[in-house]
From TrEMBL:
<keyword id="KW-0472">Membrane</keyword>
<keyword id="KW-1003">Cell membrane</keyword>
<dbReference type="GO" id="GO:0005524">
    <property type="term" value="F:ATP binding"/>
</dbReference>
<keyword id="KW-0547">Nucleotide-binding</keyword>
<dbReference type="Pfam" id="PF00005">
    <property type="entry name" value="ABC_tran"/>
</dbReference>
<dbReference type="InterPro" id="IPR041193">
    <property type="entry name" value="CysA_C"/>
</dbReference>
<keyword id="KW-1278">Translocase</keyword>
<keyword id="KW-0764">Sulfate transport</keyword>
<feature type="domain" description="ABC transporter">
    <location>
        <begin position="3"/>
        <end position="237"/>
    </location>
</feature>
<dbReference type="InterPro" id="IPR050093">
    <property type="entry name" value="ABC_SmlMolc_Importer"/>
</dbReference>
<dbReference type="Pfam" id="PF17850">
    <property type="entry name" value="CysA_C_terminal"/>
</dbReference>
<dbReference type="InterPro" id="IPR005666">
    <property type="entry name" value="Sulph_transpt1"/>
</dbReference>
<dbReference type="InterPro" id="IPR003593">
    <property type="entry name" value="AAA+_ATPase"/>
</dbReference>
<dbReference type="InterPro" id="IPR008995">
    <property type="entry name" value="Mo/tungstate-bd_C_term_dom"/>
</dbReference>
<keyword id="KW-0813">Transport</keyword>
<dbReference type="InterPro" id="IPR003439">
    <property type="entry name" value="ABC_transporter-like_ATP-bd"/>
</dbReference>
<dbReference type="InterPro" id="IPR027417">
    <property type="entry name" value="P-loop_NTPase"/>
</dbReference>
Length: 356
């Protein structure tokens, strides 16, 4: 099922939580709503579910207007951060719950419910825990049961609000991979709310980056990472260091270093350039952008991370392939000259240039 959102706004009193949201969620894809705390992700998810009303705008499911429809009529499945399993019911009954409360005319027979629950427990790989109660499960197991329960009624849309938010880092990582696999196996349209960029980059087909109630950019992980639309997206997706320079004479300039801009006609102004840790090279000739002292070296297998103290400005991070670092023989205290392989130049949050 595809979801279309048109010109949607939402206020809480005088506070605007969502500002003119327009979005298409394609059928069968896992789309993440990614953004900092308070940017409106949960509000948007709740409006899609029918748990909250927008001030105006439209929501279409497969082209049909569902804006005025009740949550029950929208056929969505939910998984929230805080596992909402019924404590007095065992795992089997929790998963069966949604089916057993359907109106008589839609309710499957007992044998069919049993078969469906067994199928779902096998899908989430917890068949052996059918008779256990929620307090006997780990946090990760509870979230897997919550997912099985959400899927029991065969929803056309699955909404996940920080489903792994309360779990420790290792379990989160395992469940991410697991969620992506299950999603693709089922082919269901899913929307995941997360503030964790690594999680969004790892599991999503499409990512919607939000900030202050607005959509900043929509795209797959590769597009957002390589072609960020503005400074917010650049900073939010992955580590990056910022350098305040000026645009003059068709180039971004920083302490004597010049980076020619493709659109040479830019007027003179201050502009920030962003460089990611792996986008630096040792300067072989010409004026380097930075000269910096190596403060720390952390060799992590395939990659070596350097923490550098530049002559001007704050500490920065640079990553080299482990083989190059070994060949260069970096040492703490050594001064190195660096030049970027790629930079992203923005003025007042707007993209000016990124080029290799
Ligand atoms: P988080 O990651 O912290 O959950 P979020 O991006 O999901 O954040 P929302 O929960 O959608 O953000 O909230 C967006 C803004 O709207 C916040 O400033 C929040 O305080 C406000 N807000 C949300 N629900 C209500 C409400 N029922 N009444 C008043 N303000 C609300």
């Amino acid at each position: 099922m595809s979801i279309t959102i048109q010109n949607l706004n939402k206020h809480f009193g005088s506070f605007q939580a969502l500002n003119n949201i327009n979005l298409n969620v394609p059928t069968g894809k896992l789309t993440s709503l990614l953004g900092p705390s308070g940017c409106g992700k949960t509000t948007l998810l709740r409006i899609i579910a029918g748990l909250e009303n927008a001030d105006n705008g439209k929501i279409l499911f497969d082209g049909q207007d569902v804006t005025g429809k009740h949550v029950r009529e929208r056929k969505v499945g939910f998984v929230f951060q805080h596992y909402a399993l019924f404590r007095h019911m065992n795992v089997f009954d929790n998963v069966a719950f949604g089916l057993s409360v359907l109106p008589k005319s839609d309710r499957p027979g007992k044998a069919e419910i049993r078969a469906r629950v067994e199928e779902l427990l096998a899908l989430v790989q917890l068949s052996h825990l059918a008779k256990a109660y929620p307090h006997q499960l780990s946090g990760g197991q509870r979230q897997r049961i919550a997912l099985a329960r959400a899927l029991a009624v065969k929803p056309k849309l699955l909404l996940l609000d920080e489903p792994f938010g309360a779990l420790d880092a290792k379990v989160r990582k395992e469940l991410r991979t697991w969620l992506r696999d299950i999603h693709h196996e089922l082919g269901i349209t899913s929307i995941l709310v997360t503030h964790d960029q690594e999680e969004a980059l790892e599991v999503s087909d499409e990512i919607v980056v939000m900030n202050h109630g607005k959509i900043e950019q929509t795209g797959n992980a590769d597009t957002l990472y390589r072609s960020p639309a503005n400074a917010f997206v650049t900073e939010f997706l992955g580590e990056t260091d910022a350098f305040e320079g000026r645009i003059e004479k068709g180039a971004w300039q920083y302490h004597g270093f010049r980076w020619p801009l493709e659109a040479a006609a830019w007027q003179e102004q201050t502009a920030t350039a962003y460089v990611r840790p792996h986008e630096w090279a040792l300067a072989e000739n010409g004026t380097p952008m930075l000269t910096a002292r190596i403060g720390k070296i952390h060799a992590a297998g395939a990659l070596t991370h350097l923490t550098l103290q530049p002559e001007q400005g704050r500490e920065i991070h640079v990553t080299f392939a482990g083989s190059e670092a070994a060949q260069r023989g970096f040492t703490v205290g050594q001064n190195i000259a660096l030049t970027p392989k790629q930079i992203y130049v923005f003025s007042q949050n707007e993209l000016i240039d990124y080029s290799i």
